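Example 254, ligand zinc ion.
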Amino acid sequence: MNITISIIMFILGTIFGSFYNVIGYRIPKEESIVFPPSHCPNCNHRLKSYELIPVLSYLFQKGKCRSCQQKISLFYPIFELLTGTLFMLAYMSFGLNSNLIIALTFISLLIIITISDYNYMIIPDNVLIFFGIIILLEIGIIYGPSKVLISILNGTLSFIFMFTLKKLGDFIFKKESMGGGDIKLLFIFGMVLSFPIAILSIFVGSLIGLPLSLILVRKNSDHIIPFGPFLAAGAIILLLTKIDLTTIISFYNF
Ligand SMILES: [Zn+2]
């Protein structure tokens, strides 16, 4: 692990994170991600290049639009910092090799769907399809076509498991237990993490989500909590810790 590369990865992550904010906010509204250029949603003031520096612009402007003084959501710099941190951690975990490319693509998808699911309760199909294809291409180029088939098989199994879980949940709770986006997302989890780890990520995500959901539900009983961000958190933890089945089995040997 190299400190300079770690810092570069962090800065690169904040720049990508800034772009993912735009994608996560605009795609669910079916807006273009390039036009109109970044602007203040309150006064339409078009952001200059020095107002687009991740995190720093927010700090220099004290969290306000330079034109109309409207407060800028803290959400933007938080997700820039989060993407930067995850890019750096991915480098620390995988090193500079081809697996890092797949890990960064996967993290990018998870950041975007977290932003969009949190704000609009939507995991857009076109985002899933786009990243699904990119990841399969990367796997194909790095590992060859047979690994692509194995990935698709892992994805299908994970999808079927999640679909069954949803049907079971709908039956038990007598209402929609999770969204279609969550089920489709599991296809990509399976592709990247393998079937057993994808399933494990549902449980890790639920463990993180359960206490938070209970607090939120108590505050506002008809508030529906999106599951996508928790699934994403579970998947990222398993990705970065590189926990695999042999690790889990070895726990039992002690
Ligand atoms: Zn403004």
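Summary: The two ends are 30 Å apart (CA to CA).
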